[in-house]
Write a sequence for this structure.
């Protein structure tokens, strides 16, 4: 069965500092991997996705993620965090063909001045 | 990517009543998905809705409690029936119009049962 682990419940980063959010997945075949962001009181916005090809994926808002099959990881990174990045971040895994997504428990990002 | 309009955005309901949540997609989609996000928690899939057939429910969710309709390829409803305070959650619908687009989510319905 698919599963996703986000080991960090909360992370606090100073504005302007770099960010890395961890995500590990378990899936028997080639996974479809996603990062979503949820601001307070809002729905989910897709940041980026990986289906195949280049393992370094660029997304919106300056985010990128790297797929490492050997480590079953899909970590999200941003070189310089802005105060507006404070939100909940969810990693998710799915399969091909309009299948459901399985979400991690989320990481809440706090940005300090 | 697709845009999903979900309503209502929030509601406060009395226990024992029912609430129907609607999702409208701006393009035809094969599958629609309904998720629940309990306070401070991650998203859990309730059911998958395929047009023209009965929805497929995940373990722990039953049709009598969460009936779903999928009358066409752009619309779906989820009803939360006989509500109790434990049903207070955010409910979200989702769809993936075509492989490679990534799943789009509605803005969610924040339900409070009193």
């Amino acid at each position: 069965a698919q599963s996703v682990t986000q080991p960090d419940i909360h992370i606090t980063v100073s504005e302007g500092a770099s960010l890395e959010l961890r995500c590990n997945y378990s899936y028997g075949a080639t996974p479809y991997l996603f990062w979503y962001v949820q601001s307070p009181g809002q729905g989910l916005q897709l940041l980026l996705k990986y289906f195949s090809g280049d393992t370094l994926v660029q997304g919106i808002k300056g985010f990128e993620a790297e797929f490492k099959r050997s480590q079953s990881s899909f970590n999200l990174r941003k070189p310089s965090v802005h105060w507006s990045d404070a939100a909940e971040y969810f990693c998710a895994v799915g399969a091909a063909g309009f299948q459901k997504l399985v979400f991690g428990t989320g990481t809440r990002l706090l940005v300090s001045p | 990517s697709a845009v999903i309009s979900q309503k209502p955005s929030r509601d406060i309901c009395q226990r024992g009543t029912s609430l129907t949540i609607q999702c409208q997609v701006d393009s035809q989609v094969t599958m629609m998905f309904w998720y629940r996000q309990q306070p401070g928690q991650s998203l859990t899939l309730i059911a998958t809705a395929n047009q023209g057939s009965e929805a497929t429910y995940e373990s722990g969710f039953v049709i009598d409690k969460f009936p779903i309709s999928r009358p066409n390829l752009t619309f779906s409803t989820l009803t939360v029936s006989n509500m109790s305070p434990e049903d207070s959650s955010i409910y979200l619908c989702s769809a993936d119009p075509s492989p490679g687009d990534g799943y789009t989510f509605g803005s969610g319905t924040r339900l409070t049962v009193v």
Remarks:
- The two ends of chain B are 37 Å apart (CA to CA).
- The CA atoms of residues 90 and 97 of chain B lie 23 Å apart.
